[in-house]
Design brief:
Layout (H helix, E strand, L loop, with lengths): L1 H6 L3 E4 L3 H13 L5 E4 L6 H8 L8 E2 L15 H13 L8 H20 L13 E2 L14 E2 L6
Parallel strand pairs: 1-2, 2-3
Antiparallel strand pairs: 4-5
Helix pairs in contact: 2-3
Length: about 160
């Protein structure tokens, strides 16, 4: 990172896990480097990345995410987040709800559930069209916006 700073780089993308993103945020702050700092979806968790790095050091970091933050008060009355909090409390008592890896796992489970429902009684791949679209995706929307997923190679 010292070499990147001295090269005059104005942007830095960390496409890694929360541990390494937190280390990078911390190091950039320690060396006084404030580039456009981007972190990937995997590292967008406040509790797994930002807090270990130090919230004061992460000011200005841009995170790529499509999920609602379960700890953000702006989602307090959101039906999807209410469902998620109840689900989390029931199945993961004592775990850190701010760790978005749990949210990601919940999303993936819901997507798989929907795909299997759309396959009907015979989910064998070779007996179905290669294209499965999921429009009314989740029972309880935990995405920031409704997403449309498609498994077709051309997405058309």
């Amino acid at each position: 990172m010292v070499s990147l700073k001295s090269s005059g780089a104005h942007a830095f993308l960390v496409a890694g896990t929360p541990k390494f993103a937190a280390q990078a945020i911390k190091k950039a702050s320690e060396i006084g480097w404030a580039p456009l700092f981007l972190i990937n979806y995997v590292s967008s968790s406040v509790s797994a990345t930002i807090m270990p790095a130090g919230a004061d050091r992460a000011v200005g970091v841009v995170a790529a995410t499509v999920t609602k933050d379960p700890n953000d008060k702006k989602w307090a009355d959101d039906p999807g987040m209410k469902w998620y909090h109840a689900h989390f409390d029931k199945y993961l008592p004592g775990a850190d709800i701010g760790d978005n890896n749990y949210l990601f796992g919940t999303q993936q489970g819901q997507i798989l559930e929907q795909v299997l429902k759309q396959c009907g009684d015979d989910p064998m791949h070779d007996r179905h069209d290669d294209r499965i679209e999921i429009e009314a995706l989740l029972r309880h929307d935990i995405f920031v916006a409704l997403l449309k997923l498609c498994s077709a190679p051309t997405h058309g």
